[in-house]
Amino acid sequence: MKKNIITILFFTSFIFLNKIIIAQQLYFNINFGYNIDAGNNFIKIYNTIYDDNNNRIDNGKIIKNTSYGKGVNADFGIGYKFKKSVSTEINFSYLNGGNIEYLTQQNIKVNQANGSLLYSQEIIDNNKLYSRFFRIIPTIKFNTNFNKLNPFIKFGIIIGFGSIYTEENYYKKEITVNITEKINEETTYKEWTYNGGFSIGYNTRIGVDYKINEKLYLFGEFNIISLKYSNTKGEMTKYVENGEDKLSETSTYDKEYEFVEEYSIYQNEPIDENKPRKVLKEANPFDSIGFNIGIIYRL
After folding, report:
1. CB-CB contact of 298 with 78 (8 Å)
2. CA–CA gap between residue 105 and residue 103 (Å, rounded)
3. Which CATH number do you get for residue 251?
4. Domain residues for 25?
5. Residue 57, pLDDT score
6. DSSP-assigned states of every residue in 30-81
7. Can you tell me the distance from the alpha carbon of 140 to that of 293, in angstroms, rounded to the nearest whole number?
8. Is pTM, for the whole model, over 0.70?
9. Residue 292: how many CB atoms within 10 A of its CB?
10. Residue-level pLDDT at 10
11. What number of other Cβ atoms are within 10 A of residue 13's Cβ?
12. DSSP symbols for 226-255
C-alpha cells in the first residue's frame, strides 16, 4: 500500500514540477502555527527496571488522550495555480512537538503498635515525551475568486519521518526503623530516542486568503492532521544511576529496541544480551488540530 502511494506521489510531483518550469502562475507560501492533540489516542512507554534481587521487570506505562502531534509547526510551500480556482502545492513542514508529562507517585507507611514509624517508602516516577518531525505534503487547493477575501480548502497526503524522545526520572526513598533509623535513596535518569521508518497520513486545511496586492496575500487556516507513526528502532542514549554513568555497563538487550510486525518466543530460550530486544510495533499518534497564519507571494 505504501509503495503504491509513493509511486503515485512521485509521478504527481514530476508532473507538478514540469508544469512549474513552463508556467507563470508559480507562488510560494510560508506559515507558522500551533497544534493541539486530537482523537482518543494513547501512548505506550517502554521501560525496564530491576528489583532488589536484580531480576528484570518490564515496566510499561500507558498515557491516554494525548498525541505527539501537538506543538509548534513551521511550513514552507511551492504552489502552481493552473486554474482560477484550483492549485497544486508541495509543502514542507517541521513539527517541534510539545512536551507530554506523565507523573506517578507512591507513598507507603507502616507504623509500629505505639504509633511510631516502622517503615516508609516514597516513589516518584516522572516522564517527559516529545517529538521532532518532518512532513512532506503534496496538496491540491480549491478556492473562490472574490476581490479580497477568498475561502479555500486543501487536501493533502503526508509523508512523515522524524524522532520521538523520552526522558525518565525515577526517585525512590526508603526509611526503615529498627533500633536505629536507616535511610536508602535511589535516583535513575534515562534518555531514549525512537526513530526509523516513515508514515503516511492525511491533511485537510480550511481557511481564507486576504489579497493585499497582486503579488502578496495573507492567510489563516485550520489545520487537521491524521497521522500514525510506527518507528522501527529505539535506543537509550543516557543512563545515570545515583550520579554514576551506567550506559556503557548496560547490555544491548536493555538499551536497544527493534520494533517488528511479529516475533516468536520459545519457552526456556535464553536471552541474548548482545542483541536488541524485539518489541511489537506501535502506531504512535500524531493526530492534531491546529491553526496557521502565513503569507503567499506570487511571481
Report:
1. no
2. 7
3. 2.40.160.20
4. 2-298
5. 56
6. EEEEEEEE-SS-EEEE--EEE-TT--EEE--EEEES--TT-EEEEEEEEEEE
7. 18
8. yes
9. 22
10. 54
11. 14
12. E-EE--SEEEEEEEEETTEE-GGGS-HHHH
How far is CA 254 from its chain centroid? Answer: 22
Selection from 257, 103, 238, 121 nearest residue 176 by Cα:
121
How many C-alpha atoms does 33 have within 13 Å on its Cβ side?
A: 27
SS3 content of the chain, % helix, strand, coil (to 5): 10, 65, 25
pLDDT value for 99: 94
**Cα 29 to Cα 144: distance, rounded to the nearest angstrom:** 18
Q: Any idea what DSSP says for residue 273?
A: T
* Sequence-separated (6 or more) residues with CB below 8 Å from residue 45: 60, 61, 62, 63, 102, 127, 129, 166
Residue 2, SS3 per DSSP: helix
With a CB cutoff of 8 Å and minimum separation 6, the contacts of 34 are 71, 72, 73, 290, 291
pLDDT averaged per 10 residues, the chain (length 299): 58 56 77 90 66 58 83 97 92 96 85 79 90 97 93 97 95 84 90 95 97 96 96 96 94 93 82 91 93 96
Q: Say what the pLDDT of residue 142 is.
A: 97
Q: What is the spatial distance between Cα 278 and Cα 172, in angstroms, rounded to a whole number? A: 29
Q: Which helix (H) or strand (E) holds 25?
A: none
Per the DSSP assignment, residues forming a β-bridge with 228 are 285
Based on its alpha-carbon atoms, the radius of gyration of the chain, rounded to whole angstroms, reads 26
Q: What pLDDT score does 38 carry?
A: 85
Distance CA 146, CA 22 (A): 27
Q: What are the phi and psi torsion angles at 66 (to 5°)?
A: -150, 175
If one counts the domains in the chain, the total is: 1
Name the grid cell of 237: 542514549
